[in-house]
Design brief:
Blueprint lengths: L2 H6 L13 H7 L2 H4 L3 H17 L5 H20 L11 H13 L1 H5 L6 H37 L4 E6 L2 E7 H26 L1 E2 L15 H7 L4 E2 L3 H6 L2 H27 L7 E3 L17 H24 L13 H24 L1 E3 L1 H6 L8 H10 L4 H18 L8 H5 L9 H5 L1 H7 L8 H14 L5
Parallel strand pairs: 3-4
Antiparallel strand pairs: 1-2, 5-6
């Protein structure tokens, strides 16, 4: 270390004559949260060291010392004995300083042909690549929970809603499998995002690449990257992959929030569609009768938190000139917090669904009233060659007549129905029933039990669930 480095106390302090102010160190440090990248930082450093040895920039003994030193540091961090120092700013400098203290000059060679700018880009990409796999696993577990309930409740009927008004009868399993599809899209979105995460940035150095004889292809192979970044300036400035990842997280949490809203409604006395297990609810500090759906409420509330992380990083990068700016340090807290929130929400959702039961009798009872098979009468008339708009008008008149008499469609006689259209025959009563309405929806993706059974079997095959 040079005299000036000793005065400044920094590995980068060669041109500085004074120590950094304590207030600046406190304001600029990131080790309090980016320590989580230590495994990926060490993994990247090992690959970089092997490349330096291959290219003749360090010798075999130096490589061995570096690898052994990094192994020791990883063990110390894992066991909790490593002392992180805020004055060393970040995970990269903390590891490099301790490595140099351990092995001497060989440690000082590790940063050859590398900048913290491409190093942090590598660490984040490695981290997100691993976390994408974990998220996919958690999403599968939630999907499995919905499949389990859909199989258990197959045949149960409930109201389908538009505008939160009873609209048409559907199978409960059909409703549950809608969430299977949502989380399936989340998995697809994550897999597609992972393609852009999985690009090797190391070798871009600070912004312009390096004049030293590095081998980026070797490092990419060592770290299992299928692609190498094409432009060094774009590489060090890029956080598109992080924004895309945060968007994926936000969409997952929004889907969880929509589900949570329904669980809150369905567990209320007004609905009584679901019973959430006692160990996944809480009580009131003053009202002894209360059983509150706190878990769904918190999942719903955390949607704002995850969305905020996305918006925060969007605003961070919106006005940044190329290439690296210290503003980009703000990416990690947003990523970590959103990721932790979504993982916790997915995990507790899978548990909650596995410990809940549906009140299928109450759901079926809710399908009576509200003229929910009115559309089926219109479809019936269309099959009799009546134009749909005329059929719509005819059924509107039937509904108005029932409202005036305070009766349901099923209470009308054939003669009364024929008073609205002579096309109506005895077979009209087949479509007036809730079960008949449900099973008539045979279009692909419809709620007929035949179609729902097919969809359920397909979902079970996709997740390799054996019945």
């Amino acid at each position: 270390m040079t005299d000036k480095q000793k005065k400044s106390g920094k590995l980068w302090g060669g041109r500085f004559a004074e120590q950094t102010a304590a207030s600046v160190e406190a304001f600029t440090e990131s080790i309090s949260y980016d320590w989580r990248l230590y495994r990926h930082d060490i993994l990247g450093s090992k690959a970089h060291a092997r490349m330096l040895a291959k290219q003749g920039m360090i010798n075999d003994d130096e490589l061995t010392s570096i690898i052994q030193g990094l192994d020791e540091i990883e063990k110390e961090i894992t066991e909790g004995s490593f002392q992180f120092r805020p004055e060393l700013e970040d995970i990269h400098m903390n590891i490099e300083k301790v490595l140099t203290d351990k092995i001497g000059a060989a440690g000082e060679k590790l940063h050859t042909a590398r900048s913290r700018n491409d190093q942090v880009a590598l660490d984040i990409r490695l981290f997100l690549r691993d976390e994408s796999k974990m998220l996919d696993h958690l999403l599968q577990e939630v999907q499995r929970s919905f499949i389990y309930q859909a199989r258990t409740c197959l045949g149960a009927v409930m109201p389908g809603y538009t505008h939160l008004q009873r609209a048409q009868p559907v199978l409960l399993s059909h409703h549950l499998l809608a969430y299977y599809e949502m989380f399936g899209r989340d998995r697809e979105r994550l897999a597609d995002c992972a393609k852009r995460i999985n690009v090797m940035p190391l070798g871009s150095a600070a912004l312009a690449g390096t004049g030293l004889p590095i081998d980026r292809e070797f490092v990419a192979l060592e770290l299992d990257f299928p692609a190498i970044s094409a432009n060094s300036m774009d590489t060090t400035a890029d956080r598109d992959f992080a924004l895309e990842f945060l968007f994926c997280l936000t969409t997952i949490q929004l889907h969880l929030s929509r589900m949570a809203e329904e669980l809150v409604l369905w567990s209320s006395k007004e609905f009584e569609f679901i019973n959430i297990g006692d160990k996944y609810c809480t009580g009131s500090s003053i009202m002894p009768q209360k059983k509150n759906p706190d878990i769904p409420e918190l999942i719903r509330g955390k949607a704002g938190r995850v969305t905020g992380s996305l918006v925060s990083l969007l605003m961070t990068v919106k006005g940044l000139p190329l290439t690296y700016n210290r503003d980009l340090q703000e990416d990690k807290e947003q990523i970590f917090d959103a990721l932790d929130t979504v993982k916790a929400s997915l995990s507790i959702t899978a548990e909650l669904l596995a410990n809940s039961s549906f009140n299928t009798k109450q759901m079926r009872a809710a399908t009576y009233g509200g003229f929910m098979t009115a559309t089926d009468i219109a479809d019936y008339l269309v099959k009799k060659n009546m134009p749909f708009r005329q059929a719509h008008s005819v059924v509107g008149g039937i509904v108005a007549h029932c409202q005036q008499r305070n009766i349901e469609l099923t209470e009308l006689t054939l003669q009364e129905l024929q008073g609205f259209s002579q096309l109506i025959k005895e077979d009209i009563f087949d479509v007036l029933s809730v079960q008949g309405s449900v099973n008539s929806r045979l279009s692909q993706g419809g709620t007929a039990e035949k179609r729902v059974t097919e969809a359920l079997q397909r979902a079970e095959q996709q997740l390799e669930i054996v019945q």
